[in-house]
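Exercise 7.
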Amino acid sequence: MDLRIATIAERPAMKSRFVNEEAEPWPAFMNEDPIAWLYFSDVRIAHPEYGLIAYDADAPDQAVARAFCVPFAWDGNPALGELPVDGWDGVIWRSARDRQIGQKPNLVSALEITVPTDLQGTGLSGKMLAAMRDNVKRLGFKDLVAPVRPNRKHLVPDMPIEEYAALVREDGMPRDSWLRVHVRAGGRIVGTCKRAMVIPGTLDEWRSWTGLPFDESGPVVVPGALVPVQCSVEHDYAVYVEPAVWVHHRL
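Solution. The predicted structure, written as tokens, is:
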């Protein structure tokens, strides 16, 4: 593959969705975060310089990977883990608020790096992370942070995120492969957040998103979810509160 990576500003008409929708790696419920709609409905207008799309030079109209991030204003020291307790959702709403009130951003947060299922394991995610780091540095920032969604955490949904983030191999590298990509690229794990993304819904909505019955109150283990979804049959709703691992990249 003759890989090329461009910003959305450079390729505004190019779609970031993959041609093969079945290659999208995210569970269906992950597309239902209401804060996500705030970002993705506005990314091409508000932050086109912060979005990256990868494509094969021989098929220039077809995305093979994407990467998104947002700038926001923040007073804490990211190197010390002084970062938003509301993680992924938090950086999105802060970025939108800052733009509305004219607040100058001083920090950039990654939102996602997505590689289709048929290209995972090819090193493409590391290339997209390197491109994101370079682009954020080009835009004049010294720090990039990421509320990382560990890609193997869903296999141990009952394990606390702090415990999972601390798991390492014999060589001292994180046991989680996506955290390893960040550390190899120069990132450093600086903390966790228990409330990185909140996805509420009625029980019928959760049934449609997951195919599960949601007919008993209490925690429900959902395939692809990092922690159990909390269900209340009496009140006809369920809420997923996803944790994340904060990683800091000094550029």
